[in-house]
Amino acid sequence: MQQERKLNLPAWIIIGMLAGILVGFIFLKIGGTFTTDYLKPFGTIYINLLKFMVVPVVLFSIMSGVISLNDLKKVGSVGIKTFIYYICTTALAVVIGLVVVNCFKGFFPVLDSSVTAGLEYEAAEAPKIMDVIVNIFPDNLLKPMVDTNMLPVIVIAIFFGAGVLAAGEKGKMIANLVESMDEVVMKVLMMIIKLTPIGVFCLMADVVAVNGAKVVGSLALVVGVAYIGYILHLVIVYSLGVKFLAGMSPIRFFKGMAAAMLTAFTTTSSNATLPINIECCNDMGAEPEISSFVLPLGATINMDGTAIYQAVATVFIACCYGIDLTIGQMAMVVVTATLASIGTAGVSGAGMIMLSMVLLQVGLPVEGIAIIAGVDKLFDMGRTTLNITGDATCAMWLSKVERRNKEKLAAKQ
Ligand code: ASP
Fold first, then answer.
1. I want to staple 136 with a disulfide (CB 3.0 to 4.6 A). Which of 49, 151, 188, 402 is the partner?
2. Is 274 close to ligand 1, i.e. is its CB under 6 Å away?
3. What is the distance in A from the centroid of ligand 1 to the CA of 267?
4. Ligand 1: which atom is nearest the Cα of residue 384?
5. Burial bucket for residue 244 (CB in 10 Å: 0-12, 13-18, 19+)
6. pLDDT at 173 over 80
7. Is any atom of ligand 1 closer than 6 Å to the C-beta of 346?
């Protein structure tokens, strides 16, 4: 059964996506709201199904990852490596985004002040860095799970996993329970994952029907620039990463990731894509205890695509207001976009909300977000794809490190 799914799913997802694009174009021509009224709801059902599994997936997969690492020191060392890798690739992503957008900024329009004055964007309050850090640590066991607030859920999972290890023999029963729950959760996911081609079809048809007409002129240009950044990051950073760190052929990696990348592209949610990402990485030979720890963490804190988008959007908005960013401001963009992307939740549209934090930090008008808000979905599709692919590169790298450690240990014995 496993084999059958592996062979068919990516192909079916591509078919679903292409059919969705075709139907979307037809309804773009015909007009009306058929896709939004009757197709999108099925896409929403699919996303809801994936979303309700996010908390159990993260909770049980991180707990079981920590338990199977079998040693608290090892949990710390994997955790630190993961965090450093994520920060470095995200900072690189912002730099790539800034370089690309600066190459194109001569083509961006300076909007008439009567236009920019009329813009309104109700900025969701950008959280302060210290608040973000404090809120990682929950004051209640259940609330973060009910609110799907993933950073505290991760903290809870790590603490309980560590607790099971520390309890030794007496914790064995819980360890078995967690392992069994992890298995059950994955089986439920398999059932939901089979619906991906249908979900992708419905979502894609609506995206094309709704956004097709909006992508004209400079908006198409800025979306295109973001995609150049995404592709460069994918080709340069991820290919080199899997080649030299994970010792894997980039082509094999991207082939293995096809199902997860296509799901991310259409659901625009790292959280919703997490189960498929875990599956793809394990199929490519990742160590399950590593992927079940590194990927949920990445779905929550590692957002390279979001970082590129924030760099591109910031420079674009500055241009629209006739503002030329200084080198100092660009450096500020690197720092804040890296931090903002860590604080971005792995859900659809979250990156645009966090963009207000970057704009505020560099002193740009937050209302500028209104210029690009209409096509955020298009940015989001690419950035989410990148976000989850980055997580997978880290999982493949650390799996290799783990395998090597195991071999060394075996050789010693
Ligand atoms: N949708 C993105 C994700 O889930 C976050 C974002 O909006 O940038 O990874």
1. 151
2. no
3. 10
4. 9
5. exposed
6. yes
7. yes
**Cα(413) to centroid of ligand 1, in Å?**
45
Q: Is the CB of 380 under 6 A from ligand 1?
A: yes
Q: pLDDT (tens digit, 9 = 90+) per residue, 53-80? A: 878 887 888 888 888 878 888 888 898 9
- Protein residue with least CA distance to atom 2, ligand 1: 384
> How far is residue 274's CA from residue 200's CA, in Å, rounded to a whole number?
16
Tell me the CA–centroid distance for residue 384 and ligand 1, in Å.
5
In our burial notation (b when 16+ CB lie closer than 10 A, e otherwise), range 114-124 reads eebeebebebe
Burial class (CB in 10 A: 0-12, 13-18, 19+), 239: middle
* Over residues 166-183, mean pLDDT: 92
Does the beta carbon of 269 lie inside 6 Å of ligand 1?
yes
CB neighbour list of residue 47: distance below 8 Å, 6 or more residues apart: 199, 203, 267, 269, 272, 348
- What is the CA(303)–ligand 1 centre distance, in A? 7
The answer to whether the CB of 150 falls within 8 A of the CB of 54 is yes
Question: Which of ligand 1's atoms lies nearest the C-alpha of 303?
Answer: 9
d(CA 136, CA 152): 5
Regarding the beta carbon of 306 and ligand 1, being less than 6 Å apart is answered yes
Query: How far, in Å, CA of 168 to CA of 210, rounded?
Result: 56
Structure tokens at 391: 């997580």
Q: Reduced to 3 states, what is the DSSP secondary structure of residue 158?
A: helix
In whole angstroms, how far apart are CA 366 and each of 51, 84, 358? 30, 30, 9
How far is the C-alpha of 24 from the C-alpha of 17, rounded, in Å? 10
Q: Are 110 and 322 in contact (CB under 8 A)?
A: yes
Per residue in 215-264, pLDDT (tens digit) is 566 778 899 999 999 999 999 999 999 999 999 999 999 999 999 999 99
Residue 5: predicted pLDDT: 42
pTM, two decimals, is: 0.79
**Which position has the token pair 């241009």?**
319
Residue type at position 80? I
Q: How far apart are the first and last CA of the chain?
A: 37
| R_g (Cα) of the chain, nearest Å | 21
d(CA 296, CA 28): 37
More confident residue, 4 or 27: 27
Residues 206 and 43: beta-carbon distance below 8 Å: yes
